[in-house]
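Give me C-alpha cells for this 334-residue protein.
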Amino acid sequence: MSGDLATYGVSVREGAVMALADSADKGGPKLAVDWQDNAGDPKSAVSIFQKQMLASPDIYLSGVKPQTMAIKDQVNTKGMPHFVWIFDAFINQNTQNNFRTWVSYKIEPPVYLNYAKRIGARRVAIVYVQLPHTVEEFTQIVIPGLKTQGIAEMFVEPFEFGRRDFKDIGVKIAAFAPDLIILNGFQADLVGLVRALRPLNLIKDGNTIATYDMLDAANVLGADELEGIRLVAPRFETRKTESGIAEFRKNFRQRYGKEPLYTHAFAYDMIGAVRDAASRLSLPATSAQWITALRSTNIQGVTGPIRFDENGDLVTPLEVGVYRKGQLVPDDGK
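Here you go.
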C-alpha cells in the first residue's frame, strides 16, 4: 500500500500507523505503507506515483485535491483501489476503484437540508468560499434541495479564497434578515465570518449552521463567540464519551501525547477496512479481488459503520452538533 499526502498527511499518517500497530498486535494480515510527502505540489505527486509504482503496491492513497487530480487517471488506468482524501461530492462517481473513508460534501448537504426543515426555515442566507468543490456542493445539491423543500427566498454570497474582511457580507445578511444562515469556508474564513456577524447580532441560538471546518475555527474563537452555533459533525467529535470513541481517544493520547482529530479516526478506519478485506482474501490478490473485497466490507469502526456505498464512499453517520460553553455536544433539538 502506497501513500502520497500533503495537507492531511500528518493526521492521516498518525491514524493509519496506529491502526497498523493495532492490527499487528492482533495478529492480523501484515500490512505495510510507503509514505511520501508530495509537499503540496501536483508535479511531485506525479513523480512520487511513478516511483511508487515500481514496487507494485496493492492500494494507493492520495490527498489533497490538486495532487489527487494530478494522478487520479493514472491510478484508474492501473485499476488498483484508490483511497482519496478530498471533500468533492462527486469525485467517486463513474469510477470502479475509488474509495473514501472521510467526510465529504456528498454527505454534508442532507444534514443542512434536514436542519432547515426541522427549524422551519423560510429565508436562508448561504455564504461559501468560491472553489470548484464548494460551488458544486451548493449550486448542485444544497440550493436545489432547499428549493425542493419550498424555500424560495435565499441570499447566496460566494467569496473569493483568501478573503479576510467579511464586514460587508455581514451588512448584506442583516439587510436580508434570514431565519437560517449556512456558513462554509476554511478555518480563517469561518473565524472572520463569525466575528463579522456577531457584532450585528445576526447569530442567534439555532439560526446558524456551519461546515466541518468550524471544528478548526473553534480552536480560535472564544466560547462566547461559539455559543449556540450549529455545525455538521461526525459522531467522533460530538460523542466523545461513547465507549469505542473514548477508548480510541485514550489510546491515541497515550501513543502521541495529544488529542486526536477526526481525521486520525477516519484514517484508522481506512486501515481497518483494508485489514478486513485482506483477511478475506488469499494474498497476493489482484486489484479486482481487492476492490470486490473492499466493496463488501461491513464492520464497526471508531467513526461508525465501515461500509461503502455504490460509489465507494464511506457510509458514515453525521449529525448536528452545537457549541455550549465552548464544548461541542449533540444538538438535542431544543
